[in-house]
Design brief:
single chain; 677 residues; mainly alpha; 2 strands; 2% strand; globular; Putative OPT family oligopeptide transporter; oligopeptide transmembrane transporter activity
Length: 677
């Protein structure tokens, strides 16, 4: 197979073009909306670098003089914007708290754009040490570079035109889109099945979700993460909830479903919060030394010539954005943050001096903690990939720290003397954490993109400009999509209209958790017993994982994934596990078939993995886009199910039809991946 090798420093090709920027913006809208919907529904987002690269290649090859570096810029821009949607892990908390009645466009845009762009700026001095000189694997970055190389080769050794993979992406999107429309729109298919059982005094729940987007997400997570989530699911619904329901008196008139759900949401879920928190802290602790060394080396490279060749000339592939521009942009972005926080705090019951003191502390916290988090996330992204990096765990740490900071300052300034002031303090903690999460998510993704650029021979400063553009476009897309989804579905515990069905509300799990933590800190009502149990469980799991690591081999126990499995609803975790098992089984079968035929095993597995990744990404995008489109229909009609063809009496049949359709799509996924090449 022909390959496009790394573009040499002496070669100058069009990279940051107008058509590429426009195409990147259009792809940005698609993946940002998809990630927002998926994140609010299940608490997970997916790396959009690979599907963005596929779409870019398929479109740009229709134009003359398109090249691999232009394709790289498009996927860079689109993946940055799609990643910025991780801010939904915290920002909906302002609506859940009742501080916001929607998502004000300019405030939401400003906090997303300023935080995201700071993430870009913070990642620039990390590039040299963590991308150029480091041996970190950067799984998504390397995979995206390989796809760009193969797609840009044009034709294979036989002269046949190379496929970009767009057909697989569209096939997955079409299957998931049709399923989602039939389930969420027409209501002919159920989105999951549940059975509630009484075992003595305990309540037991058996669940299976039919979401194809979750199958795709589980496929991308892989078998190690999937089994860890399964362990979390078993610990919650096989141990914690049965035990807690057995020792908790059941309220009069309560059903098994309402009682079990109440115990899970108010108690068992916080075990997951403790596990997630300690897992994030442990991850940061283990990465602290190499992170500091990487930052020191990168800052030295930035102050020096950054890899200058003979005569002091910096090669094209080593030219970062000039330090003066980095400094100016940083000042501007900090000013934007200050104005945004000032506007946010304007209605607070404080005098001007106290208000601006809080603004200064919030900006300083976002800046200092944001830089530390950027370095940590950049290293973690290089080590385990963007999708596996614990952004939500870092958000939990940030919301605890900033809540304690504001609690101390608010006590001195009298902010907490009134209920209104206390509510403002909680809201400020959530808003400040939003800036930190934006910084973390973008720095988490940017170094993957810069790795892709380094492998294909891109110009770093142009790629950094593309990242900034992606943040700006993504920040403009986020507020209207959030507003649309909120008004159509509502969030858990926050429905815009009284007549809405809470079962259709988007779970927004991380935002719910972080809001509960911030509220609990300020009201001194946090469920510390369950959190401490979760921390203790996390310590045990970390010890097991460390023993597995020292023994070598592939067996590991990612503690963060266990915590997520405890925290997420079982219909979500179960579908994720299905996707993870599907990924493992497919690659195992393909390996055996390749060995039996005498084929090159590595080539066969790479083909299967690439095809499966694109199909899985298509499943996520297809279901997510239909979910956003249905939200628009619901919002315009003002009805909960304007397209429904059946009533509630069809629910039993819909479950069986949903299960049958779910199995058929999974079988189709399998057959398409293992089809003859």
């Amino acid at each position: 197979m022909q390959r496009v090798d790394r573009i040499d420093d002496a070669v100058s090709l069009p990279e940051l073009t107008l058509r590429g920027i426009i195409l990147g913006a259009l792809i940005t809208v698609v993946f940002t909306a998809s990630n927002i919907y998926l994140g609010l529904k299940v608490g997970l987002t997916f790396s959009s670098a690979i599907p963005a690269a596929v779409i870019s290649m398929a479109v740009l090859r229709l134009f003359p003089r398109a090249n691999i570096l232009e394709n790289n810029m498009v996927q860079t821009q689109a993946s940055a914007a799609g990643t910025l949607s991780s801010i939904i892990f915290i920002l909906p908390g302002l609506v859940m708290l009742g501080h916001w009645q929607g998502f004000p466009f300019w405030q939401t845009l400003a906090i997303c754009a300023a935080g995201g762009m700071l993430g870009v700026i913070f990642s620039i001095p990390l590039r040299h040490a963590m991308v150029v000189q480091s041996d970190l694997p950067y799984p998504e970055g390397v995979a995206a570079a390989e796809i760009l190389r193969v797609g840009s080769a044009g034709r294979d050794a036989s002269g046949a035109k190379q496929a970009t993979g767009m057909a697989d992406l569209m096939a997955g999107g079409l299957a998931a889109g049709v399923f989602s429309f039939a389930a969420g729109g027409l209501r002919l298919l159920a989105e999951g099945a549940n059975a509630w059982l009484a075992v003595g005094a305990s309540v037991v729940r058996l669940s299976m979700g039919f979401s194809l987007a979750l199958v795709g997400a589980g496929y991308l997570v892989g078998i190690v993460g999937g089994l860890a989530m399964l362990l979390g699911l078993v610990l919650t619904w096989g141990v914690a909830v049965p035990w807690l329901t057995a020792i908790t008196p059941m309220p009069a008139g309560a059903t098994l479903q309402s009682f079990g759900t109440s115990v899970w949401s108010s108690q068992a879920r916080f075990i997951g919060a403790g596990t997630i928190g300690i897992a994030a802290i442990w991850t940061l602790a283990t990465l602290f030394k190499p992170m500091v060394e990487g930052v020191r080396a990168s800052m030295g490279a930035l102050r020096g010539n950054g890899g200058a060749g003979e005569g002091g000339t910096v090669p094209r592939t080593q030219r970062d954005m000039p330090a003066v521009w980095i400094g100016l942009l940083m000042v501007v972005l900090l000013a934007v943050l200050a104005v945004t926080f000032g506007h946010f705090l304007a209605p607070a019951p404080l005098d001007r001096a106290a208000s601006w003191k809080l603004v200064g502390c919030a900006v300083l916290f976002a800046f200092i903690f944001g830089f530390l988090v950027a370095a940590a996330c950049g290293y973690m992204a290089g080590l385990v990939g963007s999708s596996a990096s614990p952004i939500s765990g870092i958000g939990i740490i940030a919301v605890i720290l900033v809540s304690l900071l504001i609690l101390g300052l608010g006590t001195l300034d009298g902010l907490l003397d009134t209920p209104e002031g206390g509510k403002f303090a909680i809201a400020l903690a959530i808003f400040t954490t939003s800036a930190v999460v934006a910084v973390a998510s973008i720095s988490n993704d940017n170094l993957q993109d810069l790795k892709t650029g380094w492998l294909v021979g891109a110009t770093p400063w142009r790629q950094q400009v593309a990242l900034l553009i992606g943040c700006a476009v993504g920040a403009a897309v986020i507020p209207p999509v959030l507003e649309l989804l909120y008004n159509a579905y509502g969030f858990a515990g926050a429905l815009p209209r009284a007549d809405m069905d809470p079962n259709q509300a988007l779970a927004a799990p991380q935002a719910t958790l972080m809001t509960a933590i911030a509220t609990g800190i300020f009201t001194h009502q946090l469920n510390w017993t369950m959190i401490l149990i979760g921390i203790a469980l996390g310590v045990v799991l970390i010890s097991i994982d460390e023993m597995l690591r020292r023994r070598g081999g592939v067996a590991r126990l990612p503690v963060l994934a266990v915590g997520i499995g405890i925290y997420l609803p079982p219909t979500i975790s179960s579908a994720l596990v299905v996707g993870a098992v599907l990924s493992w089984a497919l690659l195992k079968v393909e390996r055996r078939r390749a060995e039996a035929r005498g084929d090159d095993v590595k080539t066969v597995l790479e083909h299967a993995e690439r095809r499966g990744t694109l199909l899985a990404s298509g499943l996520i995008v297809g279901e997510s886009l239909v979910g956003v489109a249905l939200a628009a229909v619901i919002g315009l009609s003002g009805k909960e199910a304007p397209l429904a063809l059946v009533g509630e009496g069809f629910a039993g049949t819909a479950q069986w039809l949903g299960l049958a359709a779910f199995v058929l799509v999974c079988v189709g996924f399998w057959r398409r991946v293992v089809a003859a090449r």
